Prior knowledge:
The protein has helices at residues 21-41, 44-70, 230-236, 262-281, 306-316, 327-335; strands at residues 2-3, 8-9, 18-19, 71-76, 81-83, 87-96, 102-113, 118-128, 133-142, 146-158, 164-179, 197-199, 211-218, 240-246, 250-256, 285-292, 297-303, 341-348, 351-358. α1 (21-41) runs antiparallel to α2. 26% of the residues lie in helices and 40% in strands. With 360 residues, the protein is of the alpha+beta class.
Amino acid sequence: MAKNISEKEKNNKPLKTRVHPTRIIAYGVQLAIIIFMYDFLRNHFMMLALSIVIALPILDMIALFFICRGVSINLTAPEKDVSRFNMGYLKLVLKNTSYLVSYDVCVRLQAENTFYNDSNSVIISLPCSARTDYEKQIPVTYSMNGTYRYDITEFTVRDFLGFVSFKKKAEASAEVNVYPDGYTIVGFDLTDMSRGMTESEETVKRGHDFSDVSDVREYIPGDKLMSIHWKLSAKRDILMVKDRVSMSDQQMIILPELSGSDEAVDEILSLTYTIIVKLVRDQTYVRLTWWSENNFAFEERQIMNLDNLREAFADIYYERIYPDPEITKSYMRSIRPELKAYVNVCMKNGEADAVIVEQD
């Protein structure tokens, strides 16, 4: 779960409109002292002080009404994609359009990892100045992969004298996708995984281009029409074509198991991500496959670059973790019998490992 959500943290109790009796009693004692002094001295100064002390709570409640109307909350995540164990930031902006102030605005920040259904919340106390936007950068360290959703649905504004905290609803949210560090050193030889490769022509749909664009140049008679860069050609009024570098004619099918404890699945995803990053850098075509409990089917994504990989993981984060790790192998044999072999990323001897599964 996300850690290090800092600022002034309070007890994690439900926010609600509440009266603070200690402050009211203390103010009542002061009022009683001033009444006694006025009765004893009978001068204009004490009469003025008594009038102010009596009128101040009334003015304070009126001011609280107007400041509640003028205060709003905005929450954003400047970095939408973050690597695991790295520091990310949330930007919380407290806006006040009124000319009044409050020294204690309590905001409930709810954080949830939607993939692991893990959530917590924290109450943050912020100052609220007149006609000012108070901006706070909240540092967050992410210990697990997944999609993190942050919500602020309520906050309280305390009056200047501290008598009442008034609850107000809010609609502010932000979302961050946390991905594994793709450069983690793995403790096995990737060359042994070549047994899990399948000829790409056997399974790839017609028209798919296994190549990377390395340059754009002018058209030469004989170039394929599918290589023409139409947008750039329209701008330059001359045909331009995309120069491509062919990638491997084989594909690596990788199947991570989304089964086990949260920590186990997290390690499986981290290892899967690391392997694919290495394969893509080696210009090996990868097809990422996983069993979807939501759709009761295998989901597949073609991975040609890091953007494809992150998009695929963002889709995985909407899946559900299933209890039985063996179902993927049985479903693969029955649903995808044409596959000769694939790489199964799973837990082995208490650690995440990549195992070649050869199907008869």
